[in-house]
Amino acid sequence: MDRDAELQALVDHRRIVDTLSRYASSIDGRDFVALRAVFTDDATARYGDRDWMTGADEIVAWIAGYAEQQAWQHHHVVVYQVDLDGDGDVARTVTSHVCHQAPLADPKQVTVMMGQYRDELRRDGDGWRIARREMMVSWRGSC
Questions:
Q1: Nearest CA to 131 among 115, 113, 118, 114?
Q2: Which of 11, 50, 9, 20 has the alpha carbon at shortest distance from 120?
Q3: Is it the case that residue 126 has pLDDT exceeding 90?
């Protein structure tokens, strides 16, 4: 890999990690406009055993509806794999996440969820966006 390509790969890696981190911070901050911006218009997503959703607006509406049931949420994400394709406009990632949530009905009861996001991101004129997201739940419980 030549030096310019290596530098571009490092910049792309950083921007991809920023997009995935912005996803988490947007949900935690209930900033659904910012959340919408991390998805491509034609994005698809599946969370756990739920059905696949198509389109960024449907995905964000579902997340916002879920968030309305929570007093607060906190996502901790660690992106530990970023693979760029040959032409550099598509990336596949694996992100570990731990999410703490407190339902409005009982904000002292905290639910913890651990799992992985497996994503495909595409580069467009505004940077890197999530085109496909699949969340696998490894464990969920209350504390």
A1: 118
A2: 20
A3: no
